[in-house]
């Protein structure tokens, strides 16, 4: 029972811990802070606008990821199981959001980079990767190797995704009412019904990414199955892979 409290049977590596887990979280935070430093040293019209850079879903996701990894690092340093639980709860929101950001950004950029980048915006490749790829990568590493499996089910994940997507839509429209421009050019190109459709699709993609991340976790770490007759109460059987 003590071992179960210390570490979930399906969790691959020890976390919280002052070893590899702390190094991964520290490396992620270093990248996140560098991104914020880049914004500070390269101001643009968003700096003076209502909502600042928080008009951008990228920056909202980066902030949430930073909070998640700060709590994770504190858990590593203090070995606090309570902080570790908080980190895992934050991850249920931040990891799918970062996957959504990466999928939408790079997908739209492949079609036409001016759908996501205004004419006045110039982002070097290393900064682009730091903002739009590294957060999802390190969040994925944290989930697969340093976290217990998520227990969120389909309906709650869809509800959470919808709340985030339409909450962001409300925020974007509020910023537009003050600034007269949208953070992403694609919002300018779409009429109101089109924006509703875009945010609805985004909510569905985020919910799908939650389910995909849960499935991927199982493929990497095994799937918990109900206890078998004769096994001790609460026992968890680990399957390394699903039957094909």
From TrEMBL:
The keyword Transmembrane applies. It is found in: Endomembrane system. Keywords: Membrane, Transmembrane, Transmembrane helix. InterPro entries: ADTRP_AIG1. Pfam families: Far-17a_AIG1. It is a multi-pass membrane protein. It comes from Penicillium chermesinum. GO terms for cellular component: endomembrane system; membrane. This is FAR-17a/AIG1-like protein. Its main location: membrane. The chain crosses the membrane at residues 20-36, 56-77, 89-108, 152-171.
């Amino acid at each position: 029972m003590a071992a179960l409290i210390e570490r979930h049977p399906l969790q691959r590596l020890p976390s919280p811990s002052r070893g590899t887990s702390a190094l991964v979280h520290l490396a992620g935070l270093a990248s996140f802070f560098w991104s914020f430093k880049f914004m500070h040293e390269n101001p643009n019209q968003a700096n003076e606008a209502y909502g600042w850079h928080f008009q951008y879903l990228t920056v909202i996701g980066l902030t949430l990821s930073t909070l998640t990894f700060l709590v994770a690092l504190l858990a590593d340093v203090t070995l606090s199981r309570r902080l570790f639980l908080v980190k895992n709860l934050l991850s249920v929101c931040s990891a799918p959001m970062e996957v959504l950001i990466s999928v939408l950004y790079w997908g739209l950029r492949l079609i036409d980079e001016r759908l996501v980048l205004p004419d006045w915006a110039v982002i070097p490749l290393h900064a682009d990767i730091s903002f739009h790829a590294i957060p999802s990568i390190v969040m994925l590493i944290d989930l697969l190797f340093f976290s217990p499996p998520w227990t969120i089910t389909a309906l709650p994940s869809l509800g959470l995704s919808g709340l985030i997507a339409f909450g962001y839509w409300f925020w974007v429209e509020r910023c537009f009412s003050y600034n007269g421009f949208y953070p992403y050019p694609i919002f300018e190109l779409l009429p109101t019904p089109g924006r509703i459709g875009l945010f609805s699709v985004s909510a569905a993609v985020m919910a799908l990414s939650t389910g995909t991340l849960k499935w991927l976790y199982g493929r990497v770490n095994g799937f918990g199955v109900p206890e078998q007759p004769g096994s001790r109460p609460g026992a968890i059987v680990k399957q390394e892979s699903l039957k094909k």
